[in-house]
Every structure is written in C-alpha cells, then in structure tokens.
Amino acid sequence: MNEANDLVRLTYVSRHDLACDSDGFHPVFTAVEETAVLRNGRLGVTGFLICARRWFAQVIEGPAQAIDELYAAIAADPRHHTLQLLEHAAADRRLFPDWHMAIGHASQAAGMVFATFDFSEIEVPQDRLPRDVHDLATDLAALKRLTD
User: Fold this and answer.
1) pLDDT tens digits, residue range 33-68?
2) Which residues are within 8 A (CB) of 119 and not within 5 positions of it... i.e. 6 or more apart?
C-alpha cells in the first residue's frame, strides 16, 4: 500500500445516550479508547474521538478499506444514534499521526475549547463543516497532550 495514494479521512457526528458524570465523562469512553488503540494500530488507522455530553464526533484516517470497515462497525454500534457522515475523502496527510485513537471529552478544562469553536457540549452539531470538527478535535488533542 502506498499511503499517499490510499489515505482516506472520514469524519462523522452522532448522538449518544450515555449518562456522563459532572466532568463530562463516562467509563465507556476509556474502554472504547483502549479497544480502538489496539485495533487501529493493526489496521494502520489514526484518529481522534470527541465525546461530548450528548454526542460523538470522530476523525479517522487510514487505508480506504480499513476506514470503510470501521465506519460500518460504527454505524452498527447501538451507542450511536442519528449518525451523520460529514466527510469521506482522500487525504494528503494525517491530522493525528501520533495516535491510533485518542479521546477528548467535555471536561471542565475542555469547555473553553468547545466554546471557542461555538460547539455545544450537549446539542448535536448541525450543519457544521468537516473542517470545524477537525479544528475542534485538533485543539482538544493539544489539550489532551498538556494534561496527560
């Protein structure tokens, strides 16, 4: 595989019904991250999952076949409701090359990041561009690097 010719980026948003604690966290977020890191490492996939209080948004990058298989699994996952595909396109570079998967959740510290990009932690984003989600994920990733 020549990554430059086969790199795909997929971005989606979905609603979830998980009951987050006062810091915007649910234990399933850690389980998802741990499982995804192992699986995505084998598949050559990188990405970032935003876990807001009532919605998910994710950017995944990798070989086209692996991305298609992952998205099919996401679409079948009962934790996701009203799945909205924002982007499925060739990419010239990875936005998250260092992480097979990392998660940013709607913590108190992340609240300013959500507000900066005019994202609600509760209301599912509507009519947002993939770039909006990429920007939010990139800044949440930077915050994660500072706090981990």
Assistant:
1) 999 999 999 999 999 999 999 999 999 999 999 999
2) 52, 125, 128, 132, 136
pLDDT at 5: 62
Q: At a CB cut-off of 8 Å and minimum separation 6, what does 10 contact?
A: 58, 59, 60, 61, 67, 70, 71, 85, 87, 88
User: Is the pTM here over 0.90, yes or no?
Assistant: yes
Residue with tokens 């800044």: 139
User: d(Cα 125, Cα 118) in Å, to the nearest integer?
Assistant: 10
- Which tokens hold the place of 4? 């430059």
Q: What is the 3-state secondary structure (H, E, C) of the chain?
A: CCHHHHEEEEEEEEECCCCCCCCCCCHHHHHHHHHHHHHHHHHCCEEEEEECCCEEEEEEEEEHHHHHHHHHHHHHCCCCEEEEEEEEEECCCCCCCCCCCEEEECCCCCHHHHHHCCCCCCCCCCCCCHHHHHHHHHHHHHHHHHHC
Tell me the pLDDT tens digit for each residue of 75-104.
999 999 999 999 999 999 999 999 999 999
